[in-house]
Structures
1.
Amino acid sequence: MRNHPRDEAHVARCADCQARWGLAALDVDLDRVWSGVAAEAWASPVGRVERLAGRLLGSPGLARALVNTPSLVLSWILASALVLGIGVMVTRQTEQPWVALLAPALAGIAISYAYGPGVDPAWELSQTMAVSDRQVLLVRVFAVFGLNMVLGLVASLGAAQAVGITLGWLAPMAMVSALALAAATTAKSANVGVAIGLAGWAIAVLASGRGTEDAAAAVSRPALVPVYLAFALAGVGLTLWSMSGSRSTGGVTWR
Amino acid sequence: MRDDELIAEVAAGDSSALRALFDRHSPWVAGRLRRAMPAEGVEDVLQETFIAVWRGARGHRGEGEVGAWIWGIARRQAAVRARKAGRVDLTPGPVSEQSSEDIAPGAVRRADLHKAFASLGPDGHEQRELARLVFEEDRTVAEVAQRLGIPEGTVKSRVFKVRQRLQAVLRQGGY
């Protein structure tokens, strides 16, 4: 290293000199630089789905984050449908509840891969947008649970065992996600959304569990499914209504 | 993965390959640029440089080192900025005669840098070992790769992580 040439052309080609120069500007924030680069790299044309999501959510940045959710891309959806389809076939042949086993696992994996550095190519982009991380997370969780609920219901048509797990877990989770999203959007605060979502679920558990010792069974009664779906739809409606006012002001800024 | 392979991936639209190139090359390009302009100027030039890499990867003909190609872009971007904000001198200094404290930013004293090195972990810790070999013992990338049993490309990428860690430590310490 001591005898390396001094000229610029050498440094530009020498891995050893480059490695040593890697420590030469610690006051330069490379994370900030990368955020700007990533924003440009992701500045692809806006598609129909993204445009529609942008109108509904009142935030182009949030729409971009939503359509780039790793566990909502077409390949993931097809893979989920394939796994559940195989589960239905195996369930019919073996009469073992494979769909019931697979559905929640898929949902869990999908949620795990819905957000975060390392798994989400749009995560760095989201750092450059005027969109709260929690807002992105909440929208994605709702979308992932909604999708998994639909897939679970479709699988239930072919395997009766999936009905219980779909109705008992995915439908309530979709409802809670919708409720939290609606509250957060209305209050423009993810914290309020979380509080209202949890409070709504607590009320549902307490109300349906009255007079019985098995609250889990009580909240998963098929009779409650219409209620869950009604709340989910109401949550979506409330979200759209609260977003409609923000569109004219150019977007939403959350706390 | 080699630099030319990464460029091919970038040309195909893979942003993770762009990130890998950024990790390998942004630290030293920043170091070279920092000698001639303030930190915020370096950040602007670096951003424009890697955006140009993203857009122009298809135009890279595979001739010569990727690092030289990126540095050429950085120089042009610096020249553009110079026309707007004043003259910039990017002539490099005597690299081979500079030790780690010489190429460290002026605001960071040698003692602080050594403390920061210590914060990377106990003796033998991977990052500390890499920092010691590269910045203190002046080993070549090939030697470090052999010593640590990792590819040379990984050595370059890990310099980026060491840099981030040192930066965080120095900021926490108010240096």
Note: The radius of gyration of chain A is 23 Å.
2.
Amino acid sequence: MLILECPYCGVKAEETELQAGGEAHLKRFGPGSSDDDFHDYLFMRENPKGVHFERWRHVNGCGKWFHAARCTVTLEVFGTYTAQTSTPPQALLDAISEKRPGWTWREFADASTSHNGEEVAD
Amino acid sequence: MKRYSAFAVAREALRYHSGWERAWASPEPKPHYDVIIVGAGGHGLATAYYLGKNFGITNVAVIEKGWLGGGNTGRNTTIIRSNYLQDPSAAIYEKARSLYEDMSQDLNYNVMFSPRGVIMLAQTEHEVRGYKRTAHANMLQGVTTEWINPQRVKELVPIINLEGPRYPVLGGLWQARGGTARHDAVAWGYARACSAMGMDIIQKCEVTGVRTEAGRVVGVDTTKGAIDCDKLGMVVAGNCSDLSQMAGFRLPVESVALQALVSEPIKPCMDVVVMANTVHGYMSQSDKGEMVIGGGTDGFNNYTQRGSFHHIEETVRALNETFPMVSRLKMLRQWGGIVDVTGDRSPIISSTPVKNCFVNCGWGTGGFKAIPGSGWAMAQLMATGHSYLAEEFTMTRFKEGKFIDESVAAGVAH
Ligand SMILES: Cc1cc2nc3c(=O)[nH]c(=O)nc-3n(C[C@H](O)[C@H](O)[C@H](O)COP(=O)(O)OP(=O)(O)OC[C@H]3O[C@@H](n4cnc5c(N)ncnc54)[C@H](O)[C@@H]3O)c2cc1C
Ligand SMILES: [Zn+2]
């Protein structure tokens, strides 16, 4: 069973107390942005086999949204942190590097043109 | 390949069953194939089969990191139906359902297709309207379904409790020609037929890289070395994001756990499949007598093929109201699979930004029923570059806003 510590109330909450809210730190794109950015924001997700940053809500507790870093292959939880940040705290990133040497985050997504539409061979 | 028949059973009975052959060969990889399919689940094997059968392409390898059928194909609750809402879905799922009807004869392998009928219960006013709409859509699509009233539901499912209290049964969408099949047998039957056509099924061999030259696929790296190919099909369900990254592109898919469970075997009590989507549960009885039960997906990304226990609890709790007898059943075992979910809950059967590299994924919680239709379409796409069945299921449809939105129509895993 997944247990996450709510960074607000300090409760070590198990899954039934929590609601998963999907990938964290998405940059929002709306009207006026390019089609590709809008498409990626709406539909593309990291879906990594490994370290993942997520939004969770302490729904049956204090009710607040927070962030968690978790491994999707081992279900190990690296840590949780508040929602008032747009990047994971450096201390957490360092701790993950120690456990998963060579791991990357969004390197591929940032480098790849997601212009999947244009060059599709028929 | 020696054919299976009543005569063969009699012959072997007289000689201590010494004459049965291995169902498929386990060769070492050759340096080059015309086509490599990654993933020996139902969809990958069916693709290979129809490449051979419909297009005469038999220099094919199917590469599997574990054992064939060990992914979602061997983990699902085997429901087969084609009562979808959107036209492209109805076309491919109905094609698949019709291929299931004579699959045992076609493959000379008993896949135990049992068209026992599938009911999708309507337990809210919303669902009543939704399913009536689906029944009308199905009529236009040439898919035989029918809206039935609660009394008819009770006739078909005597163990059901119509009254609620929370979710009374208000009727149902009935597809008499839906049903179940034996999932392992589907994988095994295709594997045997592929092997008989001279294709190589290479198990315990993981694809670790995709090699491209000038934007065109030329081969794969595997735990058994590099293998060249002219065309590549990635058919790896929950691992598709991983594979697509190897080839250098992304897919609009997330991988989550979906679980199922079976009870102790009991005497025959329900001879149709029942889906209760509002309460997130569905149930059928296997030939062994076990009640086979499935529910909804877990809420978070997962690659472990294990789900959360409280989801199992939720599913069973929900079914208790509609099937009070479930509360007296002992559950025997439970398991999970990693399903690949897209934004509109419809699959992707598509060419990709890499030339000669094709992808078939996104079947999520409901792709067992689609195996033959999907393989049919994927083989056509890979062989000719086009498939009328796959036309709408491109990976670019999200950008174009051309969703094939089945999330409303299905709303639950199945
Ligand atoms: C619990 C549960 C219940 C379900 N119930 C139903 C149902 O009732 N009806 C229905 O229609 N559908 C159902 N489904 C969905 C259905 O099982 C799937 O959609 C379908 O089986 C997918 O088949 P596939 O061949 O695409 O994938 P899989 O069978 O998962 O095959 C993919 C294969 O690729 C292999 N692979 C992955 N990565 C690599 C690699 N790098 N190299 C080599 N091989 C690799 C895997 O090992 C796997 O064997 C259910 C699913 C689950 C989990
Ligand atoms: Zn809290």
Note: Residues B 38-44, 63-66, 70-73, 75-79, 206-207, 235-237, 239, 243, 258-260, 294, 337, 339, 363, 365-369, 414 surround flavin-adenine dinucleotide (ligand 1) (CB under 6 Å).
